[in-house]
Structure formats: structure tokens, C-alpha cells
Amino acid sequence: MLAIFQKGLADPPKELNSPAPMQEANPPKKPKLPQEILKDFLSFHNHIHNSFSIGFANNALLAFAPSDRSSHSIHQSRRLFCGLDGIYCMFLGSLSNLCALNKQYGLSKGPNEAMFVIEAYRTLRDRGPYPAHQGADEVVKLFWGIGADGSVVIADNLEVIKASCAKSFAPFPTGCMYHNEKGLMSYEHPMNKMKAMPRIDSEGTMCGATFKVDVYSRISTMPRVGSEANWAIWGHQA
């Protein structure tokens, strides 16, 4: 899976940028532009005939190509793509407790996991904090980084991220979502802020930071009104 969002549409936390000069790598590595990343992603998996990609003007793109690793696992090979009211979701894997989650969120029985994620996101965005992430087994790991033009790159393949973002990458924190206005937030601990943790790779080079819940820093208030509330200003007030 690959997702790329242009700078300005999605602005990542500054700590995701590696402070190390590119010359420190041996051999030196440079981040790549979105179209080059997409081309390399499809070539890497060698399944161009069974892949798809969708672009949103010059603002974003989503792509999927099954890997040899995922072909042996039903949880990783299953892929869904849905869009609703300008929200798009590409889902890999499955939810064994989909019915229970629909009840927990007060949602009608959805047709699939991708539609549930969209509805759950709208619930979190518009109505209030609900614990969406409970007991995840991390079957599908995600990584994110920064491309040559400042784009945010997200993929489930570590090698693709390394080749695309040089040292400006890190594992995407489990149980979190990133909102361009509210920043990185935890589903399980929505009242706590996220803290950047410095990360050094095996070559001794400073890479993009990882993030974890800061148990000592709490958000004082969180609105719990209806969908008409302007949540866009909440992240700046916290």
C-alpha cells in the first residue's frame, strides 16, 4: 500500500524530518518525487498487472500492489477501497469484530471494513472521542516519511519508504491517526498529547522521530457537541 499527500494538503510533524545531512549516508541517499516513488513502488512489487492507483489532481495519490509476502496471508492480501463525502479509505486486512465495532460506535451495519473506517473517522472528527483502537495485533505495519518535495509518504513496505524518503521516515504509531489541523492523536488516549522520540538507525544516523503518547501531558478540554461544531480550531487551542 502507498499513499502520498502533497505538502500543504498534509503537513507532517517537523520531527519526522531527519536532521542528518544526506551526505552522511553511505552511499548518499536522496528522497524522491511522488511520481518516481509510485513507479518504484509498482516495480518493487512486480505485480503491475494486479495493482491499482488513483490520483486526486496533483494533491494526492493512493496505490496498492500485492506482494509475495501478502499472497500467503488472507489478512494482508484482502484490500478494499471506498469513498464517501470526500473521504477516501484504502483498507488492508480484516476486522474480526466488525459487528461489535459498529454497535460500539452507534453505526448501522456497514458493508465492509473500509466503510466502517470512514464512518468511525467521521464520528471521531465530528462527535467526540471513542476508543477505536483496541487490541490490535499489528498484522499490517505502516511507515511514514517525507519525499523530496515535502510530500507525506505512507506505505506498509519499509524498503519502499527507505528508498523514497532517505532518513526522514519512521514507523507510524499504532492506534493513532494524523489530522492536518489537529496533528497526531491517539484513538486510545485522545486526551493525551503525542511526544516525539529521537531515533538513531544501525548506521548511527539520526532518522525521523517516532511518536508515543505523553502520559504527563493532557489536553484540558475536548468538545463533545454535535457535527456542526468547528473542530478545526480545537487542535490550535489545546
Helices, strands, pairings?
Elements: E1 2-5, H1 34-45, E2 52-56, E3 60-64, H2 74-77, E4 79-84, E5 87-92, H3 98-104, H4 113-126, E6 143-146, E7 152-155, H5 158-165, E8 169-171, E9 176-179, E10 183-186, E11 192-197, E12 210-218, H6 234-237
Antiparallel strand pairs: 1-3, 1-7, 2-3, 4-5, 6-7, 6-8, 9-10, 11-12
Description:
With 238 residues, the protein is an alpha+beta fold. The chain contains 6 helices and 12 strands. The protein has a single domain, classed as Glutamine Phosphoribosylpyrophosphate, subunit 1, domain 1. A 6-stranded antiparallel beta sheet has the order 2-3-1-7-6-8, with helices on one face. Strand 2 and strand 3 form a beta hairpin. The protein is globular. 26% of the residues are buried. InterPro entries: DUF3700, TSJT1-like. This is Aluminum induced protein with YGL and LRDR motifs. Pfam families: DUF3700. It comes from Actinidia rufa.
